[in-house]
Design a protein that fits this description.
alpha/beta; Beta Polymerase, domain 2; Four Helix Bundle (Hemerythrin (Met), subunit A); 5 domains; magnesium; [glutamate-ammonia-ligase] adenylyltransferase activity; PII_UdlTrfase/GS_AdlTrfase; EC 2.7.7.42
C-alpha cells in the first residue's frame, strides 16, 4: 500500500498551517500528496506556493479570475524574469487544478476547461510580451493599405475543444491576415515579424529551465507540417486547404479555436475554412477515411507495444472522439448543431436527433468521463505526458487511489469494462455494412480483368442472373473505357467495390440492362464527388433503393442525376416514402432554414433542396404505386404552397428592414396593408404535376392617402409590393447550382403581360367585373388564395364569388366556351396517327375541365355552393350534390378524370409522351365525348 511518509506529511502540513490551511485542507493534503509525487515535491521544495494556493483551492475558477491573477502576477515581475514568472504561475495553477480534481471539488469538465484556460492565458501572455518587444524594435506590422496586422493563434485538438488534459502538449497554428511590412525604423516583412514572434512564443512556453516548462508546443498541424512556414497569411492558408488539404486535417479543424491574438480576424479565418471541414452533402467517405486513420494508429500501437494506451488503444479516448467526429464530418455541413468543438455536446446532439441510441450515448459519455479522469490522474503523478497504464506497482496503486478504488485489482476491471463498451460501439458504427470485396467474386473479375474473354465474362454474368449477358457486358465495358482511366486512385478503389455490388443487385431485377445503364449514367455524374460512391458502398440499402427507383422511373433517375445530393435521402428507405402533411412540411422547412438565419443564399439553396427532396418522396411513392393519384397532386401542391410561403415571408421581412412597413391613411385611421399570392391553374386547382409551372397573381390591399412605407427609406406602397413580387419571381425561377424552384407564369394577372405586376384589390375587382374576358373568368374558377396578408383572402374570395356567380346568357356562354376549345384544338400539334393526347386530345383532361367550368359559370348564380372549391373533383361532387349534374354522369367524369390524370403521372415518371394509342382509355374518352356532346351541341 502506497503511503506518504509521516515525516513528509508533517513538513507539508506545518507549511500549510502557516499559510492558513484549515482541517479540511490538511485532510485533502494527505490524499493529493500520496497520489502525486509531483505535487508533493513541488510543495516541499517551494513552500511559498502555499500562500498562493490556500485562497484558490476551495472555489471554482472563472476566466476573469485567471486573467486577473495573471495580470497581478506579471505586474510585479521584471521583463527579464518573464519566462520564470510564467513557469511559476503555471505550477501554482496546475497544483490548484489537480487538487480540486483529485479531492472531488471539480468534475471532469471543470478540470479540462481550467487546463485549457490556463493554456489560453499562457499563450496570450507570451504573445503580448514578445509582440511589444518586437514592435519596439521593428514597428507594427501593417498591410498594403496601412491597416495594422496582428498574429492569430489557433488552438487545435483538445485545447481547441476546451478538453486539454493535465500534462498535454498544445497544438497551435499561427496565421495573419495580410502581407506587408512593419512601420518602424528597422522595417521587416510581416511574415518575418510573425515568424519571429511565433518562435519567441514557442520558446517561452516550451523551453525547459530549472523552473520547468509551461506547455510543450506542437506546430506540426500547420500547412505542410514541419516543412511549412511557421506563420502564413490567410490567403495562403485558404489556398492550401482548398487544394492540398488532407482528410485528417478536416478532423483537426473540427476543434480549431482562436485562443490568442487577433480574435476577430481569427474568426474570419475559421469561417473561411468551414467549407473545407463541413461539406454541404452527407460525406460518407468519412467512414473509410476514419477506418484508415484508426488502422494506422492500431498498427503503430502494436509496433510500439502500446496496447494499454488509454488514449489510442482499443476502447480508448480517441475512439469516442472518432465516433463524434465521424458524424460531424458526415452531417455537420447540413446540421450546424453538430459543428461543436465539444465531444460531449456532439454526443448529446447525436442522441437528441436519434442518430445514435440513447443507451449508446450514455455508455460513451460515461466511458469518456472515466477515461479522461484516468488520463489526468495518471499524468498528475509525475507531470508527464503519458497515456499508457503504469507498470510499477506503486504508480498503479496511486492511480487506483486517485480514481477512488482501494487497489489496482479493483480499478482495472472497471477500466476494462468501460473500454470494452466503447470499443464495441466503435466497431458497430464503423463496421462496413457492405459485403467485403472477395477476390474470387466472378463479377469483380468481369469488372477488373480486361483480358477476360467475352465468353467467360458472359458466362459469369449469366450465372449471376443476367438474362442478356452480352448487353450487360457491352454496357459495362463501354462505360469503363470511357471513365475508368480518367479518375483518381481513390475513385478507382471505390468503383472496384461498388460496380460488382451493383451488378449483383441488378442482375435478377426487372429491366436489368436499362437499369444498369441508368445507374451507370448517374455514377458518371458523381465521379467528381466520390463521397457518393462511398455512400452507395457503405449503405447497401441506398444502392438497392437507387436501383429500384431507376428501374421504376427514368424521370426519378434523371432527377437524382441532376441533383445527386438527393442520394443522401436513399439511406433511410422508410423515411423516403413518408408523405408529410402541410404542417409537417412547414415544420421541416422552418427547421432547415433556421440553421442558417443570417445566410439568405444558403437559406434559398436549402429551400431548393427541400423542394427536390419533397418531390422525390412523392415520385418514389408514386412510382412504387403506394400513393393515389389525387394524393400525388395534393402533395405536389402542398410543397409549392410551403415554398411560396417561405419565400414570401423572407422576402417581405428583408425588404421591410430597408423600407419599413407599408402604411395607409384611411377614413377609419392608419392601417397596415399587405400582400398576397393567388394561385391559378393547377396550383389553384390543387392539381400540380411533376413538371408544372406556377400560375401566380399578386395582390395588395393598400388604399387611401399617404400610402408609403415607414422607413428607413420611404417608398410608395405600390413600389414596395412590386419589389416583393419581383424578388419572389427571381428567387423562384433563378437557376443555380442547387437547381431551380419553379418556373413562374404571371400572365393571368389583369391585362396580362401589359398589366401591373401587382394589382390592388380594388383594381382587380373592377377588372374582373368589367373587363375580364371569358377565359379569364374560367381561370378564376380554379383560383385561390395561397399565402400572404389574411384580410386579402376573404376579400379575394368575395370578389371571386361575385364574378363567377354573375348570371350569364346560357347560349352565349356555351357558344363562347365551345369556340374557345375548338380554337385551342386547331392551334395545338396533332398527335401521331391512331394516338390521342391525354390532356389536350378530344375526350381528354382539358375537355373535362371545360365542361366543369361551363357548368360552374352557367349555374353558380343559383347554386353558389358549387364554387366553394377550386379542384375539379370537388367541383364535380358539388355539381352532383346541387343536382346540377346527374350523378351517373358526374361519377363517370370523376372516374375518367382520375384515370387520365393517373396516366399522365405514370408517363411523366417514365419520361414518355402524353400521346397514347387511341384504343387506350376508350371508355373514359367515350364518357367525356358524350358529356361534351350533351352540353355543347345545339
Amino acid at each position: 500500500m502506497v503511503q506518504l511518509p509521516e515525516s513528509d506529511y508533517q513538513f507539508l502540513s506545518e507549511a500549510a498551517i502557516v499559510a492558513g490551511a484549515d482541517e479540511v485542507t490538511l485532510q485533502q493534503l494527505r490524499v493529493i500528496a500520496t497520489v502525486s509525487p509531483f505535487i508533493a515535491q513541488s510543495l516541499k521544495t517551494l513552500p511559498w506556493l502555499w500562500v498562493q494556493l490556500i485562497p484558490l483551492i476551495s472555489k471554482p475558477n472563472h476566466e476573469r479570475d485567471l486573467r486577473a491573477r495573471f495580470d497581478a502576477w506579471f505586474a510585479t515581475r521584471a521583463d527579464e524574469e518573464f519566462d520564470r514568472a510564467l513557469r511559476q504561475i503555471r505550477r501554482i495553477e496546475m497544483i490548484r487544478i489537480a487538487w480540486r480534481d483529485v479531492c472531488g471539488l471539480a468534475d471532469t469538465q471543470e478540470t479540462l476547461f481550467d487546463l485549457s484556460q490556463l493554456a489560453d492565458q499562457s499563450v496570450q501572455q507570451a504573445l503580448l510580451f514578445h509582440e511589444a518587444a518586437l514592435t519596439a524594435r521593428h514597428g507594427s506590422p501593417r498591410d498594403h493599405s496601412g491597416q495594422m496586422q496582428r498574429l492569430v493563434v489557433l488552438g487545435m485538438g483538445k485545447l481547441g475543444g476546451y478538453e486539454l488534459n493535465y500534462s498535454s502538449d498544445i497544438d497551435l497554428i499561427f496565421a495573419f491576415e495580410h502581407e506587408g511590412e512593419t512601420d518602424g525604423e528597422r522595417p521587416i516583412a510581416n511574415s518575418q515579424f510573425f515568424i519571429k514572434l511565433g518562435q519567441r512564443i514557442i520558446r517561452s512556453l516550451d523551453h525547459v529551465t530549472s523552473d520547468g516548462f509551461v506547455f510543450r508546443v506542437d506546430m506540426r498541424l500547420r500547412p505542410h507540417g514541419d516543412e511549412g512556414a511557421l506563420a502564413l497569411p490567410f490567403d495562403a492558408m485558404e489556398h492550401y486547404y482548398a487544394t492540398l488539404g488532407r482528410e485528417w486535417e478536416r478532423y483537426a479543424f473540427i476543434k480549431a479555436r482562436v485562443i490568442a491574438g487577433d480574435f476577430a480576424a481569427g474568426e474570419t479565418l475559421l469561417n473561411q475554412l468551414k467549407p473545407f471541414v463541413y461539406r454541404k452533402y452527407l460525406d460518407f467517405g468519412a467512414f473509410a477515411q476514419l477506418r484508415d486513420m484508426k488502422k494506422a494508429i492500431e498498427v503503430e500501437m502494436t509496433r510500439k507495444g502500446l496496447i494499454d494506451n488509454i488514449k489510442l488503444g482499443p476502447g480508448g479516448i480517441r475512439e469516442v472522439e472518432f465516433i463524434g467526429q465521424l458524424f460531424q464530418l458526415l452531417r455537420g455541413g447540413r446540421e450546424p448543431r453538430l459543428q461543436s468543438r465539444s465531444i460531449l455536446k456532439t454526443l448529446d446532439v447525436l442522441g437528441e436527433t436519434h442518430q445514435l441510441p440513447a443507451s449508446m450515448i450514455a455508455e460513451l459519455k460515461s466511458g469518456y468521463d472515466f477515461l479522461r479522469r484516468t488520463e489526468n490522474r495518471l499524468q498528475m503523478q509525475h507531470d508527464q505526458q503519458t497515456q499508457s497504464l503504469p507498470i510499477k506497482d506503486d504508480d498503479r496503486t496511486r492511480l487506483a487511489l486517485a480514481m477512488g478504488f482501494d487497489s489496482w485489482q479493483h480499478f482495472l476491471p472497471a477500466l476494462d469494462a468501460h473500454r470494452h463498451r466503447i470499443h464495441r460501439h466503435f466497431g458497430e458504427i464503423l463496421k462496413t455494412q457492405r459485403d467485403e470485396r472477395r477476390d474470387d467474386d466472378p463479377l469483380l473479375t468481369v469488372w477488373q480483368d480486361d483480358s477476360l474473354s467475352d465468353a467467360r465474362a458472359m458466362n459469369h454474368l449469366e450465372h449471376e442472373g443476367f438474362s442478356d449477358p452480352q448487353a450487360a457486358l457491352e454496357t459495362l465495358r463501354a462505360w469503363k473505357r470511357e471513365h475508368y482511366a480518367l479518375v483518381s486512385d481513390i475513385v478507382r478503389q471505390r468503383l472496384d467495390v461498388l460496380i460488382p455490388n451493383l451488378l449483383h443487385e441488378v442482375a435478377t431485377g426487372d429491366n436489368a440492362i436499362s437499369t444498369l445503364q441508368a445507374v451507370l449514367t448517374l455514377i458518371s455524374a458523381v465521379l467528381g464527388r466520390s463521397v457518393y460512391l462511398a455512400l452507395l458502398i457503405e449503405q447497401p440499402q441506398a444502392l438497392r433503393q437507387l436501383i429500384q427507383l431507376c428501374s421504376a422511373s427514368p424521370w426519378i433517375s434523371d432527377l437524382l442525376r441532376q441533383h445527386p445530393i438527393l442520394l443522401d435521402e436513399l439511406v433511410d428507405p422508410e423515411a423516403l416514402y413518408v408523405q408529410p402533411d402541410v404542417d409537417d412540411l412547414c415544420a421541416e422547412l422552418d427547421g432547415l432554414l433556421s440553421r442558417f438565419p443570417e445566410d439568405e443564399e444558403r437559406q434559398f439553396d436549402e429551400l431548393r433542396r427541400f423542394r427536390q427532396l419533397s418531390v422525390l418522396r412523392v415520385a418514389a411513392a408514386d412510382a412504387m404505386g403506394v400513393l393515389p393519384v389525387m394524393r400525388v397532386s395534393d402533395q405536389l401542391t402542398w410543397i409549392a404552397e410551403v415554398a411560396l410561403r417561405a419565400v414570401l415571408n423572407r422576402t417581405r421581412d428583408k425588404l421591410q428592414e430597408r423600407y419599413g412597413r407599408p402604411q395607409a391613411t384611411t377614413p377609419e385611421g392608419v392601417i397596415e396593408p399587405g400582400f398576397a399570392i393567388i394561385g391559378y391553374g393547377k396550383l389553384g386547382g390543387i392539381e400540380l404535376g411533376y413538371g408544372s409551372d406556377l400560375d401566380l397573381v399578386f395582390l395588395h390591399d393598400s388604399d387611401g392617402e399617404e400610402t408609403v412605407t415607414t422607413g428607413p427609406q420611404v417608398i410608395d406602397n405600390s413600389l414596395f409590393f412590386a419589389r416583393i413580387a419581383q424578388k419572389i419571381i427571381h428567387t423562384l425561377s433563378i437557376r443555380t447550382p442547387a437547381g431551380v424552384l419553379y418556373e413562374i407564369d404571371t400572365r393571368l394577372r389583369p391585362d396580362g403581360v401589359g398589366g401591373l405586376l401587382v394589382s390592388s384589390l380594388k383594381g382587380f375587382a373592377q377588372y374582373q367585373q368589367e373587363h375580364a374576358w371569358l377565359w379569364e373568368i374560367q381561370a378564376l374558377c380554379r383560383a385561390r388564395f395561397i399565402c400572404g396578408h389574411p384580410p386579402i383572402e376573404s376579400a379575394f374570395t368575395a370578389i371571386r364569388k361575385a364574378v363567377i356567380c354573375t348570371p350569364r346568357d346560357p347560349n352565349m356562354l356555351r357558344s363562347e366556351i365551345r369556340a374557345m376549345r375548338e380554337k385551342m384544338r386547331a392551334e395545338q400539334d396533332s398527335p401521331p396517327p391512331d394516338h390521342f393526347h391525354l390532356k389536350r386530345g378530344v375526350g381528354g383532361i382539358t375537355d373535362i375541365e371545360f365542361i366543369v367550368q361551363y357548368l360552374l359559370l352557367r349555374h353558380a348564380h343559383a347554386h353558389p355552393e358549387i364554387i366553394r372549391f377550386t379542384d375539379n373533383i370537388r367541383q364535380l361532387t358539388a355539381l352532383m350534390n346541387e343536382k346540377v349534374l346527374p350523378e351517373a354522369i358526374g361519377s363517370a367524369l370523376i372516374t375518367a378524370y382520375q384515370s387520365l390524370r393517373n396516366a399522365t403521372h405514370r408517363r411523366t415518371l417514365a419520361n414518355q409522351s402524353l400521346n397514347v394509342p387511341i384504343a387506350d382509355f376508350a371508355s373514359e374518352r367515350a364518357t367525356v365525348m358524350a358529356t361534351w356532346q350533351h352540353y355543347f351541341t345545339d
